[in-house]
Design goal:
The complex is a heterodimer of chains A (about 280) and B (about 260).
Chain A lengths: L14 H4 L2 E12 L2 E12 L3 E5 L6 H9 L6 E6 L2 E2 L5 H8 L2 E4 L11 H12 L4 H14 L15 H13 L5 E5 L7 H18 L2 E6 L2 H9 E4 L4 E4 L10 E7 L2 E7 H5 L4 H7 L1
Chain B lengths: L5 H24 L8 H40 L6 H39 L2 H7 L4 H38 L5 H10 L3 H27 L4 H35 L1
Classes of the chains: A alpha/beta (about 280), B mainly alpha (about 260).
């Protein structure tokens, strides 16, 4: 029985995916109760890259993640995820696509009536493709990745906020998704726990090379991801300055009032002359 | 409090009816597609059926008992006290058994469903379920609908029997009626159409209870306050709908039998 989480394999997919984009937003707009939340948003997430969405509360960051998953539909524009147009896809077909995407919710969103093991195993149990033994092995492996294998039988209510967030990461990655979405994974956590979570995200990025979109209002999260890599031999995160690598791709997207005002690397962000961005990163 | 224009209010209400109808339709449509959640359905049957047993037993028994007490006063005036069994059994089987059981189960379970699903909704667990590739209407709604319909059917039978039993206790201990006479009139007065009418209603009531409870839960908004509001609305709406549906089903069945 193999319990190793291997890097995901891409299915044959057309259009945007063939052009190397895991996510492609083209002039996307959406409004809630006559308030424009996103207005003409366009960006591209290349395969294997991590993009950090920055912006103040209400800028439309979480809305972008929900649009990627097809949980809500745009009023205008086109969204292509893993080669499929989710803006025109019926709910039944979206369930299949969502099976290839992992999502970590802002408040973890663990099922409180299930144990940690059942939470992490949820998708695998629903897919009904693996035996119970194989599922247990995969769950233990995913929980070991987030260093919580001892919590298998615990209820989510028995865990701390940081532990819940780590279980949510294990749940998102257990099915070896091709795309990971993180919604404010460090929100409401203390600085030490936040660093632990970012270390796990960097580990996931560098070990499994999964494309990911990370929403945060904490600039330091993004900069830490952009300036560090995960050293598998030492099993810890280290600054890129100690060992420059070319396979670490983290870029930034800054939103302001539903519009993209920046899309580029950490260096470009730091060098930006835009007044709002200067104030934001100050 | 924000004022809302009549046209906006009308639009909201029509939208709510549309969303409820779609959910109700999907809850039935899901029965014909995979995956089916047998374990969840059995778990819900236990929660709804076994969990409601005590209140249904008590409600049925005391309704039958008080019915015997009340009707005996009138029947005595016409010298027809011996018909107490007939009155109790007909009233319980045709109307009071199904309606009161429906109302009791609505009070207990529509509120339970609305609060459980509402809590899941406001803590993003419903979105998480969709994000994990699972259809919440298949996993959460359809098992509750099936379990409520099936269990309400059997709970109604229990309520009917306990009601007639309650009537017998009063007839025997208070009115000093002959036991054999009570049971004979109670049994012989029932026709197939009475039983059919009494057992058709729980199917509709069960569907109403589960779909209304789930609808209000899945559309809950605004944190814990929103969950509380959804719970109250679910009980009120399901209770009123049970009484309305009861009228139409009764009218339909009477027309069918005549």
């Amino acid at each position: 029985m193999s319990t190793t989480l291997s890097p995901p394999h891409s299915a044959g997919a057309p259009a945007a995916e063939q052009r190397g984009a895991t996510i492609l937003f083209e002039d996307v707009a959406i409004e809630f109760e006559e308030k424009m939340v996103l207005d003409g948003v366009s960006f591209r997430l290349p395969r294997g890259e991590t993009k950090c969405l920055l912006g103040i509360a209400g800028a439309g960051k979480t809305t972008i993640l929900k649009l990627v998953l097809g949980l809500i539909k745009p009023d205008r524009g086109r969204i292509t995820v893993l080669g499929q147009d989710v803006s025109a896809m019926p709910e039944e077909e979206l369930f299949e696509l969502r099976g290839r995407i992992g999502m970590v919710f802002q408040e973890s969103a663990l099922f409180d009536s299930l144990t940690v093991e059942e939470n992490v195993a949820f998708r695998l149990l629903e897919e009904r493709k693996l035996s119970e033994e194989e599922i247990h092995g995969r769950v233990v492996e995913a929980l070991r990745f987030v260093e919580l294998e001892h919590t298998l039988a615990m209820a989510p209510s028995e865990l701390s906020g940081g532990m819940r967030r780590r279980v949510a990461i294990a749940r998102a990655m257990v099915s070896e998704p091709e795309l990971l979405l993180y919604d404010s994974p460090t929100g409401g956590l203390d600085p030490i726990t936040s660093t632990t979570i970012i270390e796990l995200i960097v580990k996931q990025r560098d070990v499994y090379k999964t494309s990911s979109l990370l929403v945060s209002h904490r600039l330091q999260d993004g900069f830490m991801m952009a300036s560090h890599y995960f050293d598998t031999a030492a099993n810890e995160m280290r600054p890129l300055s100690q060992a420059p690598r070319t396979d670490v791709h983290t870029t930034f997207l800054v939103l302001r009032e539903g519009k993209v005002i920046f899309d580029g690397s950490s260096r470009e962000l730091a060098a930006s002359h835009d007044e709002y961005i200067r104030e934001y990163i100050a | 409090m924000e004022l809302i224009s009549p046209s906006e209010l009308a639009k909201e209400k029509i939208h709510a009816v549309q969303e409820y109808s779609l959910l109700a339709g999907r809850s039935i449509g899901n029965l014909f597609s995979h995956p089916r959640y047998m374990a969840d359905t059995l778990q819900q049957a236990d929660v709804i059926g076994v969990g409601s047993l005590s209140i249904v037993v008590l409600t049925g028994f005391f309704t039958g008992a008080v019915l015997a007490l009340q009707t005996s006063q009138t029947l005595q005036q016409f010298g027809s006290l011996s018909l107490t069994g007939q009155v109790v059994s007909l009233s319980m089987v045709r109307e009071l058994g199904p309606v009161l059981t429906g109302l009791m189960v609505a009070g207990r379970n529509a509120s339970g469903m609305a609060s459980e699903l509402g809590s899941m909704r406001v803590t993003e667990q419903i979105d998480a379920m969709r994000a994990l590739g699972t259809d919440p209407t298949k996993k959460l709604v359809t098992p509750r609908v099936v379990a409520t319909i099936v269990m309400l059917f059997f709970l109604t039978i229990i309520s009917d029997l306990l009601g007639i039993g309650g009537g017998f206790m009063v007839a025997s201990l208070v009115l000093n009626l002959d036991a054999n006479q009570y049971w004979t009139t109670a049994y012989q007065s029932l026709e197939f159409k009475d039983v059919l009418m009494g057992l058709t209603k729980p199917v509709f009531f069960g569907f109403v209870i589960a779909t209304v409870g789930c609808y209000y839960g899945l559309t809950a908004r605004g944190g814990t306050q929103g969950v509380g509001r959804a719970t109250t609305q679910a009980v009120v709406a399901s209770s009123v709908l049970i009484l309305m549906v009861n009228f139409f089903v009764t009218k339909l069945l009477i027309a069918w039998f005549t």
